[in-house]
Structures are given as structure tokens and as C-alpha cells.
Amino acid sequence: MSDNLLVYKSSAGSGKTTQLVIEYLKLVIPHPEKYHAILAITFTNKATEEMKSRIIDTLDSLQSGKETPPYKSILLNAGLDEKKIQQAAGTVLRLILHDYSRFAVSTIDAFMHRIIRSFAFDLHLSQSFEVILDQEEEMQRAVDMMLDGLEEKDALTGFLVSYINNQLEESRSWRIEPTLYKFAKVLENEDAASNIRRIENVSLQDFITIEKQLKKQLAIFETTLNKQNNYFEQLIGDIPETAFFQKNKGVPGYFKNIKTKAYQKKGLTSLEPNTYVWKFMEEGKFCSGQATANEKAAIENVADKISTLIQHTRLMLSKKGLIIFFTESCCATFTDWRF
Fold first, then answer.
1. How far apart are CA 32 and CA 160, in angstroms?
2. Same domain, 163 and 113
3. 222 and 301 housed in the same domain
């Protein structure tokens, strides 16, 4: 048998299982008694069952003398005569069926489980240990263990208490477990793994520092939005909202959302102009049918400035605008981190 590593690269549906079965047969047919020394590893249970079935069916066909392309021709080309192939296939099949537990085609998980079970004593594990596949349960247990292990003066304790206080200030639940469970799920996400590795050397104090800076920027952000609304109110003066196109569903409602901070519950996407606001800006639909001549004139006089104000607000609320706004003050801290 060659000691060289043989690698097959192929896409889905190109015959990987067939090729692996061929390799298995090329190893086992010359030495039937060594079937238990051949290990085949797959990723899924489905792949394991498919490969086992394919091997058993092929061995059965070979011992019966049936045509089994491409397996038989490949074995013949490997220097094995037809009679020997038929006899060896029958022998292997009988050995496997009488000692099926040693037919070593399994998933990585099952294989590792067998190894750990074999060395349970050396690993200081109970011989009756169980593998729990309920990821949700394990995450909850890990979070509970972390919370139970907190000390009163730990920096992490202070951080979590601060978070709970923030939740209470925003009239949200003080229970922190659901948030930690949700975060634990992120840690298991393969797509998040690379980003998590980039910040694994960042200390808790660094996070606290950046949190303070972001809160400061958030206050400035809200102040800036309020200034946008104040400028709108200054522009329209005593013009009633009923004089505007679609009334409070249009431009007045857009700025009312800013003034009342309704966006804090609805999300920043609620500050994206609706159809009526777009028609105000792009189609010149400024006034309602109830507007007086004086009100129409007043709205038309400030319409361009209102449209520009909304566009400035949209730019600030765009993804790029938000990233620039909230990371600008944090640059000093970020540059100290080794990403």
C-alpha cells in the first residue's frame, strides 16, 4: 500500500461517493480480513448511510458475478482477477455483516465520540458520559455558570450592572439572561467567527471606553436631529399642518417623528421619507386642498429649504453617514487595537 496522500477535488454531484467506494474496494478486496482496519470519515449521517449502502450493495453484486460498472473494471485494471474479486467480495460481505460494528464508516462526530469513550478514564470522564446535542440548552447553561461565578467587585459585574441600569432607564426588562443567550448564539455563528477573532484581544475596559464615547456621540446625534426639527419649525412659523400636502402624513409628520423621538422605538428606518414626503420634494406637491392662498404662498416660499433639510437628514441617517458619525470620535481607541 502506498504511503502517499491522495486528494480528490470535485464539485457536488460529480461522483465523490463513487470514487471513495472504489478506493475502499481497492483496499479491502486484496485483504478481506483487514476490513476493520479501514476508516472512512464523512461529514453527515446521510453521507454515512449512503456510503455504507453503496459498499454493501457493490460487494453483494460483485460476489454474485453481476455487472457493476465502474467498480469491477477498475478492480480488474488494478491487477485482480475476476474469480478472486468474486470470492473476496463474498468474504468481505460476510465479515462485515457478522461484525457490523467494526465496519468503520462514520461521521467525524461519531468517530471522535468513540475515541473519547475509549479513553474516558484517562480523560477523567465518567464511563457513562453523554453527548448533549441541544445547543440551546448548553448555551443557557454556560451563561448561567458565568453569572453564578461573578464576584461583586469584578469589572464584568460592574459592566453588566451598568447595562441593566440602562435597560431600566429605557423602560426595558432588567433580565439580562435573554440578551446573553442571544449573544452566545452569535459566538457560534461561523460568519461571525472572523470578526470575533479580530477583537479577542480587546479588553473589557476598552469596550467600556468605546461605549462611553458612543453614548456621547448618540447624545450629539439626537441633538443634531432636534436642531433639524427646530429649523423646520422656524421655517414654517405658524403655518398649520393641515395646509401641507397629506397633512400630518406628509412633511409635518416626518418632523414630528423626530420631535417626539418616535424613531427610538420604530427604528431609524422610520425616518426614511414616505411617498407623500417624496412627492413634496420631487413633484412639487406642497399644499393640501384646505390651504388658503396665504398659506400656499408661505409653503411654496420655504419648500426648497424644507426639501434640502430633509435631504441633509437622509444623508446623516444613511448607512455611510451613521458609520462616519459614530466612529469619528472613536478613531483614537480603534487605532490602539490590533485588528
1. 62
2. no
3. yes
CA-CA distance, 108 to 106, in Å (whole number)? 7
Same structural domain, 158 and 267? no
Q: Residues 227, 177: one domain?
A: no
Assessment of whether the complete model's pTM goes beyond 0.70: no
pLDDT digits (tens, 9 = 90+) for 19-75: 888 888 888 988 899 899 999 988 888 889 999 999 999 899 888 888 777 776 777
What is the per-residue pLDDT across 293-327, written as a single tens digit (0 to 9) for each?
Answer: 999 999 999 999 999 999 988 888 776 556 655 65
Domain that holds residue 163: 150-198
